[in-house]
Design brief:
alpha+beta, 2 domains, 4-stranded antiparallel beta sheet, two-stranded antiparallel sheet, 6 helices, 8 strands, extended, DUF3164 domain-containing protein, Phage_B3_Orf6
């Protein structure tokens, strides 16, 4: 339902209230469609949150049982990587833990050293090379992309200035926390020799079956 006041008037994008008779039928229908879908999306989101919490709890609960079996102390912190598989190996649940990386001020010094190297090697002529490397230092949402920064270390460059810059990057790394991810996999059709495929729970990554595919499943 749209946001209405005590007189039944609809609030518009400017925060003003107007009489519904002044709203075209297509705009009223659009409002109805969006309101209905958003309400449904919130329900699905809450179910996914509850499912995720339950999945973590059950995985770590199983690990606790294993610890008891081997007379190991139970730990209250529910963290760490976990891989569980069903008996025939056609289904798997994985918990992976990624480190959250930040950089201190030494990263700026590393960039200065890289700029020095680029100026020396290109003499300011090859802008494309400079762009490819310095793009890693672009700031988005107030921070740099750690993966882009660390990818510079894979470049096979042996120049002393470059090596000094990579050493500065190593020194600039700070671990600010961890983030756990849970993933679900299965072998389609239950074949024991098939490859494990991710069960996609992200709406953007889901494919809607075609009519032909639906007919094949009947």
């Amino acid at each position: 339902m749209p946001t209405v006041n005590e007189k039944g008037m609809w609030r518009n994008k400017e925060g003003d209230f107007i009489h519904p008779d002044m709203i075209t039928p297509d705009k009223q229908l659009e409002d109805e469609v969006v309101e209905k879908l958003i309400d449904s999306a919130i329900v699905v989101q809450n179910r996914m949150i509850n499912f995720k919490a339950k999945a973590f709890e059950e995985c770590y609960g199983f690990v606790d049982l294993l610890r008891q079996k081997y007379d190991m102390e139970r730990i209250t912190s529910r963290s760490g990587a976990v891989t569980l598989k069903n008996f025939d190996g056609t289904k798997a649940v994985e918990i992976q833990v990624a480190k959250l990386i930040s950089f201190d001020q030494k990263l700026s010094l590393a960039k200065e050293k890289i700029d020095e190297y680029l100026t020396l090697k290109t003499n300011g002529a090859d802008a494309e090379i400079q762009t490819l490397i310095t793009r890693a230092f672009d700031v988005k949402n107030g921070k740099v992309d750690a993966k882009q920064i660390l990818s510079l270390k894979s470049y096979p460059i042996s120049h002393e200035l470059w090596k000094e810059a990579m050493s500065m990057i190593d020194d600039a790394i700070e671990i600010v926390g961890t983030k756990s991810y849970i993933r679900f996999k299965h072998r389609k059709n239950g074949e024991v020799d098939g490859s494990l495929e991710h069960i996609v729970l992200d709406l953007a990554g889901l494919e809607i079956p075609t009519e032909e595919a639906k007919d094949d499943n009947i």
